[in-house]
Structures are given as structure tokens and as C-alpha cells.
Amino acid sequence: MNGRRVLSPVLLLGAGTGEATCGILYLAGYLRRGGIEAFVRLYDGDQTEDEVARSLEALVARVRPRLVGISLKWFHHVHRALLLARTLREIDPSIRIVVGGNTASYWWRELHAFDCIDHIVLGDGERPLLALCEGDPSPPNCVTLGPNGAPRRLPLEYVQGATNSEDVYYSHFDDIFLSHQDRHAFSGWVAPGKGCGENCLYCGGARGNQKAAFGRAKPFLRSEESVRRDHQEIAQRAWQLRYDFSGSSAAFLQSTWAGVDLSRHSCMYFLWGVARVELIDALAQTFEHVHMVLDIGCFSEQQRHEQMRRGLLKPCASDQQLLEIIEHCRRHENLDVEVSGIAGLPFASEATLKEEVRLVERVISLDCLVGYQRLEAQPGALATEHPARFDMVSEARTFTEFLEYFEQREPGDVSSVPMLRFRDAALERAVQRTSEHVDALARKHEEKKQRIALNGGTRLKNTAPSTLRFELGDWLGAHRVPAKVAREQVTVVRSVNGTGLACAPSLSPRRFTDPTLDQGEDGRILLATLAAFERPTTVAHAVTQLGAKVKLDPHSAREVIEHLVGGRFLQPA
Fold it and tell me: Where in this chain does the record put each B12-binding domain (predicted)?
């Protein structure tokens, strides 16, 4: 490449625990098609710094990357992104370390001060990252150094839109993952479009920040062909598809599903705006099961309309529209609904809090789930930047304040974030009481929906739709498994809701142990219990079988059966 030093292989990581943003999968496919050997680690379960170091050492030894890209999309992950970068620098100082994503683009000045970061990609990352890998001395969208040595943000040269994003799509899923376990962690995200045209007061990714960070003044739908390629690549590799873009119509999605059989797949659709019946019908007719999340901003209609009137909230359904949408959804037996809203938004009062509770109770009475959380502080959001306008205070606003907050979280705590609260102490207490009450209502209802009463005569069946077998080295990855146990067999079972079991009954924990495996006797008992219900069987009969086959006492046998029912591996026959 014109004598330039090419940086390949490349390793792409997410900055948070759990499943990383699907953005690194689009990037990896783009790099592969550009001639760069790219790999991803999609799922990260490490909690302590020691675990992070051990995992990265194994990954670096396996891939020998010349460049590592860290996706810093979500602000919750800024501390972890820096931890990953510092650890990688200690492991191999020659690796070029690049960060990108929404949060990296927003805090590029602050991040550039850390010597463990070599490059910051602003906005859309496909072409800039490929240019970095190819040794381009002037890669687009990257922070550069000015004449005085200070970081400089040049105008964005690469801004994806409807006419220049045809080359961004999923590909090379058989090459980019380092283990079957990591590939199975993919939950099926597809991005029909990008960007946002709204300026919701609580959101750090609203229209103004999209324009500043990505150069995108309005959202766009990707080409039908590129989204169709996504579906073709992942349909045989994922049990569900997930979407969260409001601009995709039924006609658009149906065209991208053409030629792909999704009749045995589940779908989770996060709808930002008012759901159209055509989209609801199309989803229900295409997928085996659909979970639709309807975002209505907040559960108080008065509060919701006031925010929309002031231009501070995206268009949301009225209470009447919401109830009509739910009624239409109820016509489809394979579709269930969750209604989502934020507690503690501006303009709250005793009256709006009562409205919230009434609507939540009405939604629950229609057997819909409720998603409900307090207003969090997001960098760049209007309410976070100017809380006094709404008579509120923010627990964090600056980069330093957010970083310090996340540095002080306990290992494994991935849920707590800085919050926005009301200055008026009495109002804040009332909002918190209502929030806790609604949380309790929602939790009780969800538990009731999932509860199955078991007795000796209850007939259950193994409803797991997927049972696969792998060698341990292929399942966990050769970089994590010693050669002496790499050929041990692992049986991987998925329940109807995606819960997974990985059983290695022949592998003694004394030889090798991994927290994601059910090993030895535990693995044998789980597989024996599933086998006992291959055909519809009563609990009492299965308990007797388990006593004879794996010497399990009746109490322990019932506990295992209840565990598998809770994970929806066993369901009423």
C-alpha cells in the first residue's frame, strides 16, 4: 500500500462488560473486506482488574494485534475504556490503541490527554479506521496535533448518509470471532438506519450532539441492499433479531427480509415513536415471537405533552393512542408489549405522579410489562448541561465528575449511574416514592407472568430449541483453554428466551475450571434432567428417574427442575 506500514491483525473490543455494541461487528466486516485481518471480542464478563489483565494478555497472545480499537459508545464505560487502554499499553507498548464512538467523539479533548491512547476517531469509524490500518498519514475524522502540539479537531470528512453507506454491512461472521461462545453472545442487533432527528432533553445522543459529533444533521435509512446483507449474514447464526430505529417502515423492513426465512426467529423491537399498525402486523407475521417495547417518554400524559410542546421530547403517543396500539398488538398471540418511560423528568408535580401510577396500573392490567427508571445524567444532554433551567441538580456534568463516579463503583456494578434530581427536597422525595412504588408494581407483575406453579402432577417438556456440541477449545477459544483439555466435549443448550447452559460433564474442575461452564457432576445432572423431559413427563416421574440415573435425592431433583423451568428450558406440556 504505497510503502506504508500496514497495521494488521486488528482486535476490536467493547469498553463495557456484557455484549459490546454491534458497531464493532460492522467495523470488523468492513476491515476484512478491505484486506485487514480483524477480530472482535463481543462479550466481556471480566469484573476485577486482575481478570481484565489476564483476559487481555491471552487475547494479545492469540491475535498478536498491531492495532486495538476500543468502542467507547456509552458514557457509562469511560473508566473501563481507559482501564483497557492502560492494560494494553503495559502488555505491549508497540500496539496502536484507537478509541471511537459517541462518547469518545464527545470527550475527545479530555481523552487525548491520556498517553495510553494513540488515536481518537470522531464520528463514523469505518473509513477512518481502515485508513489508520493502511498507514494513511492523514486519516479522516481523526484528532491530530496542531503546530503547538495541542490536539486539533479537523472538519469531519467522512459522514455516512443514505448515498455513501452501501459498503457498511455485516460480513465474515465465520472469521472475526475467536470462539463459538463469543459468537453465540451476539443478540442479533441490526441497524436499519443511523442518527436522530429529535432533541429530547435527557438524551446525550440527540440531534444537536449528532450534528456536532458525527456531522449528521438528520437521521437516514441505510440502503435496503446493505440491510438485506445483514439479515443474510446473521439469520443462520442468531436466534433473534433486535432493532431500535424509529424510521424503518414495514415496507422497508419487509424488503430487507426478502429471501430470508425468519419464521423460527424471535424479534425485539425498541420503538422510539408512535407504532404504526402496518409495522406491528409485519413483525408478527414474519417472526415466531415478537417483543415490542413502546417508548412513551414518561407515564404522565400532562408532563409528556408539556415537554413535547416545548420541543424537549420526541413525538410520543397519547394515552389513548397507546391503549389503541396495545389493543391492536393483543390481536397477535405471538406478540407481547412492554411500555417504557422515564421517571423524574422536568415539570413533575403531585398531579403528574398520580397520572404516572394510574397509567402504569392500566398498562399492567392489560398484561403488558413496564420499563421504568429514574432520569440519569448523560453527558451533553440538555438537562445535564443546564439542570438549573428545570430546577434540578446533576450528580455529574464534567468529564472528571463522570470519570470519578465510575472509578468509585464496586467491581461488577454496571447499573449505577449519576442521576438528575429535583432541588425541591419534598418533590424529590415524592418522585422517589412513586418510582419505588412503580418499580414494585412492575416487578410483581413480571414475576407473576413468569411464575409456573409446580407439583408432582405438573407435566413439563424440554422446549429448548437449540442443543449443540463443541470441543472445549472451540467453545471457549484456544487462547483460554490448555491443550490437555481442549478436546473435552461441551453441550450448549439455549432456552426459548435465549438463556444458555454450557455443560461439560466429563471435565473435572480439578483439571480446568471456567465460571461459564457447568462442569462434572453439575453438568451431568442438568443434562440428565433435560433428557428426562424429552417427552411430556410429570415432575414426580422425572424425580424418580433422576434418583435412579444420577442418584439425586427428591428435594435436590425438584430444585434442579425449578431452576430449568425458571430459565424456560422446561415448559408446561
Answer: 2-143
